[in-house]
UniProtKB/TrEMBL annotation:
The keyword Signal does not apply. Keywords: Metal-binding, Nucleus, Repeat, Transcription, Transcription regulation, Zinc, Zinc-finger. GO terms for cellular component: MLL3/4 complex. Residues 1-55, 77-100 are annotated as: Disordered. The lineage of its organism: Eukaryota, Metazoa, Chordata, Craniata, Vertebrata. GO terms for biological process: positive regulation of transcription by RNA polymerase II. Residues 44-54 have a biased composition (Polar residues). The keyword Cell inner membrane does not apply. This is Uncharacterized protein. It comes from Dissostichus mawsoni (Antarctic cod). Its main location: nucleus. Gene3D superfamilies: Zinc/RING finger domain, C3HC4 (zinc finger). GO terms for molecular function: histone H3K4 methyltransferase activity; transcription coactivator activity; zinc ion binding.
Length: 331
């Protein structure tokens, strides 16, 4: 697929592969993986609006799912351009319609117009996990993700091994393997995923999981690797569970976006409940965003941004509120 070109190549610079792209920095501990800051607090990226000024819904430039996807990609974020990315001429082409969250609609069936993924500033919209797991993307000390735009460029020319659609940027970690996946397809395919290292092993090389990840590849119930093909990956905490140990199935639909009982019980009825106001997800518009790992509704998040966390009073327009680095509440 490296030779395939986008449908508007005549208006763009041809992207080139960077074989020396920096590798991702390993997450230092499981605690860091389990407790990442809220969407608006990571450096180098901001929460993406659920729709554009003209009312159209925005989607991830890699998996083509919207913010409220149930496949565990985390929040949709805006990432700025890297310094070495080739300049792309503006394009009047529209982005493909977002997928409907079915596995069959992940990614892109045809090579999209590359420039349409980027705004006037050169930035793009990508889910946090879709970006963090992508080949060539690295995490720097302040938790900023770099080279996300390069991953978007390469993804427009790479087919996913599982769904056979474009936008795949997550390569199997096994030496010599050239299989790529979308983040939702990684789990659906039965690949082994290491949240500590942000790498995966495709089903063909899943036998190397214990060698790669040690105890991270063990089931949280039986404390053994056991049947590796039966492991379910929790997109919330990164732990693994044998489907047999939980007495549940392990179909592709169940695997994609699965979360363990400790993280979230239900994935299908949108029964999220705001921990501050108690509103149920079913009572909110479908485009409503959630924050703090889907624990706070959009309305309460806006209230947080305008009220002091100490005195609970609204901010004076002449006063700049500061955010606590631990709880992210305004003080």
């Amino acid at each position: 697929m490296d030779e395939q070109k986008t449908n508007c190549d005549e208006n763009e610079s041809e992207p080139t592969a960077d074989d020396n792209a920096p590798t991702k920095k390993l997450v230092s501990s499981s605690e860091e993986s389990k407790a990442l800051p809220a969407a608006e607090d990571l450096s180098g990226a901001t929460s993406a609006p659920s729709s554009t000024p003209d009312g159209s819904v925005r989607a991830c430039a890699l998996c083509n799912c919207v913010e409220r996807s149930l496949h565990g990609q985390r929040e949709l974020r805006h990432f700025g351009p890297s310094s070495e990315r080739p300049t792309l001429k503006p394009s009047a082409s529209l982005l493909p319609q977002p997928g409907n969250d079915d596995l069959s609609s992940i990614g892109f069936s045809d090579s999209p117009c590359l420039a349409s993924f980027f705004d006037d500033s050169g930035g793009c919209l990508v889910h946090h996990w879709c970006a963090a797991w992508s080949e060539g993307v690295k995490q720097v000390d302040n938790e900023e993700l770099e080279n996300v735009d390069k991953a978007v460029i390469s993804g427009t020319q790479r087919l996913c091994e599982y769904c056979k659609r474009l936008g795949a940027t997550i390569r199997c970690h096994a030496e010599g393997c050239s299989r790529f996946y979308h983040f939702p397809c990684s789990a659906a395919s039965g690949s082994f995923q290491s949240m500590k290292q942000l790498v995966l092993l495709c089903p063909e090389h899943i036998d190397k999981a214990e060698e790669l990840a040690g105890e991270e590849s063990w089931c949280a119930v039986c404390d053994s690797a056991g049947e590796l093909t039966d492991l379910l990956f929790c997109t919330g905490c990164g732990l693994h569970y044998h489907a047999a140990c939980l007495e549940i199935g392990a179909t592709p639909i169940q695997r994609a976006g699965w979360q363990c009982p400790e993280c979230k019980v239900c994935q299908t009825c949108r029964c999220r409940v705001c921990m501050e106001c108690g509103v149920h997800g079913l009572g909110l518009p479908g485009s409503a965003q959630w924050f703090d790992n889907y624990a706070v509704c959009e309305g309460c998040q806006r209230h947080r941004s305008s009220v002091c966390g100490v005195c609970s009073k609204a901010a004076n327009t002449s006063v700049t509120l500061q955010s606590c680095s631990t709880c992210h509440r305004l003080v």
